[in-house]
From TrEMBL:
This is ABC transporter ATP-binding protein. SUPFAM superfamilies: P-loop containing nucleoside triphosphate hydrolases. Pfam families: ABC_tran. Signal peptide: none annotated.
Amino acid sequence: MNPQWNGRGVLSGRGLVKRYGEQYALAGVDIDIEAGEAVAIVGPSGSGKSSLLHVLAGILRPDSGEIHLGDERIDQFSEKRRSELRRREFGFVFQQGMLVAELTAEENVALPMLLGGAGRKQALTAAREWLARLGLGGREGSRPGELSGGQAQRVAIARALTHRPKVIFADEPTGALDSRTGKDTMNALLDAATEAGSSVLIVTHDRELAASLPRAVTIRDGRITTGVTVG
Ligand SMILES: Nc1ncnc2c1ncn2[C@@H]1O[C@H](COP(=O)(O)OP(=O)(O)OP(=O)(O)O)[C@@H](O)[C@H]1O
């Protein structure tokens, strides 16, 4: 085992391989995400960015390699345990907020806490606090269809953060927004993650956005080619 393994990162992957038939989506990736750190994953289309995010988040199981969350090796968890882990320890933000259209903003944000067993009052109070932090005080009762794209994405960010996850996984979180709204939304995500003490892993095509983060990792043909500190 790698001597640097223990305590290296809050989330660590070693030798990660993911294949689709003959196609290697990940061809042996090592990565460490430190506690509270924000990391961009960049690279051309089809290079393996989403596969890496999905494997690290326990959505996809790697064909080989290891994933550790703190002291726990999570890649060998059963489907049920991985699903619990995702709900308890991780938060997710996708390109489209994937909010529940029939629920209000605060109900959407409270949902993961309710599913995790929190009481309704506690969950709604936390939801309102996070919405206010994200500049959406007063919009608690709005349904997703009544919000702008940027506002809806802030609701999705609040939803990902309410339970103060160890790691937020964001797949092209600003991809559907214009560049100004995208920048504001990204800053809101980073500020809120800092507030929650969460690490953030952001998959993006946007090089400018990646360069604004403390660390950007480039992936090509399923391999990490650079992991330089850019700021
Ligand atoms: N479900 C799947 N079935 C077959 N091949 C897949 C599947 N998912 C991904 N791949 C292949 O694995 C490789 C990596 O895909 P991945 O989606 O991880 O790349 P990406 O960098 O996120 O791409 P993009 O930026 O276009 O979203 C690609 O060659 C892709 O065609």
